[in-house]
Design goal:
This protein is an alpha/beta fold and 375 residues long. Helices cover 42% and strands 14% of the residues. It has 15 helices and 13 strands. The protein has a 7-stranded mixed beta sheet, sandwiched between helices. The chain has a two-stranded antiparallel sheet with strand order 1-2. Helix 9 packs across helix 10.
């Protein structure tokens, strides 16, 4: 809890949020944080009159900044006053590639942001960041040996620059002590809601309803793995090999031998490049393929493909078809195919290492708990 001063009147605030903005920052990212926080402040009386005001101010290296959307923002406080806020938010830098992000991190304005973040006291100020803004926080060293997330498509570059950070690209918002990080672009919405939730869960739920914001606990549904850039030749060959055999049982030792490397080397290189195990990567590719089928075929034709769709759903090692719902895949497309393949309403996938070294094991049925209404 902090305090704000308006004129000569001091006001106790539930939270003072300083939102950093620099030229070229992602316009919708800044706007979404501003709107969510200000809606929360306006609605707090309707939820609980005891909630104190929520203050949001713009911090920056100059008096005005212009975002990628050509939106001009007046800066309320210089970066030197960042320590006066309970939370300092670092939004996306407005870059979409590793090269552009690295260039932005070397710019004068962003270097001043990094320097100001480095001076903050962990005991009094939380730092929240999303998308490429997480890179700026990582530059301070505050994320070393701590959990964080960032833009899924920049995961390999992030791991290369900051190898000691425990990167979690699946989770939309990661909280580790006084650090809060969120995923790509519109994950700023989730970041802002998480800040409101730390004040009042009921207020955050009310704001989400007012603004029609769905709960999105994971980035996984949005990851397109062909956009994860990496330069490791073994990983490139591994990806080509498994993409051509997604409908076949997966055996990491066999794949490693086929690529002329050892299982341990393959596992280590895939983990370093993609932050996934080889089996985990194959699972994601299969889910990606299944999502593509659901998006490019109507329900009837998807059901007609029956075995193909169902096999893609079963072989990944997903614990249950409900995982596909979490991943954003339409349950109504896959369940009819799965149920038709098994001949009943029981679907479950058990993933384990069999005695012959196969990661994909036969289906064992348990009652379906799919999140849709059967007709």
């Amino acid at each position: 809890m902090g305090s704000g001063v308006y004129g000569s009147i001091a006001i106790v605030c539930a939270m003072r949020i300083g939102l950093i903005a620099v030229d070229g920052c992602f316009g919708s990212a800044v706007a979404s944080v501003i709107d969510i926080v200000r809606v929360a402040d306006g609605a707090r009386g309707d939820v609980d009159p005891r909630i104190d005001p929520i203050e949001l101010a713009i911090l920056g290296p100059k008096r005005t900044v212009t975002t990628t959307a050509s939106m001009t923002l007046s800066v309320d406080h210089p970066l030197s006053e960042s320590a006066e806020f309970d939370v300092v938010v670092v939004p996306a830098l407005g870059t979409l590639t590793a090269a552009a992000t690295n260039d932005a991190l070397q710019s004068r304005d962003v270097r001043s942001v990094i320097a100001s973040l480095g001076r903050l006291d962990d005991a009094t100020t939380r730092i929240a960041a999303a998308c490429t803004g997480v890179f700026a926080v990582a530059e301070t060293g505050r994320m070393d040996h701590r959990r964080a997330t960032t833009s899924w498509f920049l995961g390999p570059e992030f791991l290369k620059r900051y190898p000691t950070v425990a990167l979690d690209l699946d989770t939309m918002v990661v909280v580790d002590g006084n650090l809060v990080t969120a995923g790509a672009a519109f994950a700023h919405i989730d970041l802002a809601l998480s800040l409101v939730r730390s004040i009042s869960p009921d207020l955050a739920q009310h704001v989400a309803k007012l603004l029609i914001i769905d709960e999105r606990p994971s980035q996984a549904a949005f990851v397109a793995y062909e956009h994860l850039r990496h330069e490791d030749p073994i990983v490139v060959e591994f990806e080509r090999f498994v993409r051509a055999r997604l409908d076949e049982p997966f055996n990491v030792a066999f794949v490693a031998q086929s690529l002329g490397t050892s299982r341990r080397t393959l596992e280590r290189r895939v983990r370093a490049a993609l932050n996934l195990t080889p089996l985990g990567f194959v699972q994601r590719l299969r889910i990606e393929r299944a999502r593509h089928l659901s998006a490019t075929t109507d329900l009837t034709s998807a059901q007609a493909e029956g075995g193909r769709v169902a096999w893609l759903a079963l072989v990944p090692g997903c614990v249950h078809v409900v995982s596909f719902v979490v991943m954003g895949v339409l349950c109504g497309v896959f369940c009819p195919a799965l149920h038709g393949l098994l001949g009943d309403d029981r679907v479950r996938r058990e993933s384990s290492h069999g005695e012959h070294g196969h990661e994909d094991q036969p289906v064992q049925a348990q009652p379906c708990r799919c999140l849709h209404l059967s007709s």
